[in-house]
Design brief:
Layout: H1 7-25, H2 29-33, E1 36-43, E2 51-53, H3 55-66, E3 70-83, E4 86-98, H4 101-107, E5 109-125, E6 128-145
Parallel strand pairs: 1-6
Antiparallel strand pairs: 1-2, 3-4, 4-5, 5-6
Length: about 150
């Protein structure tokens, strides 16, 4: 439960996540990367991916995966616990990824729609909230197979 004295932090963290989705979908990589701590940890193993350490490595992997894809990320219903300069948040999420024809042919998938959760840890650094760790888990995924034209 968020207390009244935590409301500003609640809004600030929610805005970080809103920018996360917008910067990711518009491929504003420098701005997207700036939302994370230097030692950011990205864990996509629960959705079939890998464990990645460091902002630059996570940025490289994500960018390589979806650079040419059209994406739409949405988050909803944050469950947030704030404790001083750290916070834990679980976001319900949905993502849509549609790869370009070349990438789709390489991986054999035209696109996917995923439904699940982001579980994240935020820290406040120099008065600014950043994402320090993220785990992506999916409850369900609709996979759209690639069919050559």
């Amino acid at each position: 439960m968020i207390r009244a004295d935590q409301f500003e932090d609640y809004v600030a963290i929610s805005e970080v996540k809103a920018r996360y989705c917008r910067f990711l979908d518009t491929k504003q990589w420098a701005d997207w990367g700036d939302l994370f701590t230097d030692d950011f940890e990205l864990d996509t193993r629960p959705s079939g991916g890998t464990l990645t350490h460091g902002r630059e490595e996570a940025l490289r992997i994500v960018r390589e995966s979806i650079e040419t894809a059209k994406t739409a990320h949405q988050v909803h219903s944050p469950e947030m616990q704030i404790d001083g300069d750290s916070a834990r948040v679980v976001w319900a999420m949905q993502d849509r990824v549609v790869w370009d024809e070349q990438r789709a042919a390489e991986i054999g998938i035209a696109g996917l729609t995923g439904y699940g959760h982001y579980t994240e840890r935020y820290v406040r650094e120099n008065g600014r909230w950043r994402i320090a760790a993220q785990t992506l888990s999916r409850l369900h995924m609709d996979v759209h197979p690639f069919s050559p034209a």
